[in-house]
Amino acid sequence: MGIFSKTCEYAVRAVFFIAQRTADGSRVGIKEIAVNIDSPEHFLAKILQDLSRRGIIQSVKGPNGGFYLDAQSLARPLSDVIEAVDGGGIFRDCGLGLKECSSKNPCPLHHDFLDVRNRLQNMLESITIGQFNEDLNLGIVVLKK
Amino acid sequence: MGIFSKTCEYAVRAVFFIAQRTADGSRVGIKEIAVNIDSPEHFLAKILQDLSRRGIIQSVKGPNGGFYLDAQSLARPLSDVIEAVDGGGIFRDCGLGLKECSSKNPCPLHHDFLDVRNRLQNMLESITIGQFNEDLNLGIVVLKK
DNA sequence: ACAATAAAAGATATTTATATCTTTTATTGT
DNA sequence: ACAATAAAAGATATAAATATCTTTTATTGT
Ligand code: FES
Ligand code: FES
Known about the structure:
The structure is a homodimer. In chain A, α1 runs antiparallel to α5 (78-86) and α2 packs across α3. In chain A, a hairpin with a 5-residue loop joins β1 (58-60) and β2. Chain A has a single domain, classed as Winged helix-like DNA-binding domain superfamily/Winged helix DNA-binding domain (Arc Repressor Mutant, subunit A), CATH 1.10.10. By secondary structure, the first copy, chain A, is mostly helical. A two-stranded antiparallel ribbon of chain A has the order 1-2. Chain A is built from eight helices and two strands; from the N terminus they run αααββααααα. Chains A and B meet through α1 and α7 of A and α1 and α7 of B. The complex binds FE2/S2 (inorganic) cluster (2 copies). One FE2/S2 (inorganic) cluster is lined by residues 94-96, 98, 101, 106-107, 109-110, 113 of chain B. Chain A binds a DNA duplex through residues 1, 5-7, 27, 29-31, 40-43, 45-46, 48-49, 52-53, 59-67.
């Protein structure tokens, strides 16, 4: 596994995809999302249900229903998705697994980890969910393969 | 889980502990290591067996036996331990889980991830297993609690 | 009202990571 | 040779992450 759990990777890819596909106010269904971000459909459904309950994404049932993002959601920092799915541990926990990460009783790598973690956090807090819509449209960046 | 697997966290903590405890040429047993880095003994044994097979740490059986590190091992970069336990994925894989991480078909976060990953890699490649012995002796850094 | 649609929810299955226990092998000192 | 020691190896066990399948609920258009 990488920096995030697989679950979280799916969540971020899905959220980016929904952002791009529903910029015009339409909705996109779970099947279409799953196919386009290359994720297991039913598993992704669970993930998106959870994000929907938390208000990070929006959804409507029934015909013409699906997932979408309102203006507020599009403006959210990506870190909100990470926190919702994986929790904030990646931003805060000791890189060597000590129960407490503190500059009082630091592990040998505390100083270095703090730096890497802060960079990661700053990066994810300054990226918004909607900011790649255009690049995705242009094919400059991709969400599968 | 954090940036590394739990397995890998145990491995790094253990390796640091062995380095400190055997700087005088002695050996340290699995039980003592486990207690001092707060890890499950038998599980850690498996991990250290693997590191021993790979030549990253040294061990001898029998009375006065245990784990230790030769001069070469003390000088190893910490990245070798990470690579041995978790594989190099953390240094190379796409942060969003795309099968290939490439600047040709990049994910939206490719640029940012590349930076974070490279920093992490540089950091772990420039840290040696033995370099915290003194800080550990002085209690400036710790491996448990 | 009704039928069709699509997400939500519930239940279950599979795989991987983590952990424990037992037996074997190598080494040492007597 | 022998008994004691400690890691290595083997066999299971448990927990968590990942994945699939089925049933229910909300919404829409007719
Ligand atoms: S104590 Fe380990 S990263 Fe802070
Ligand atoms: S393609 Fe995603 S990090 Fe490089």
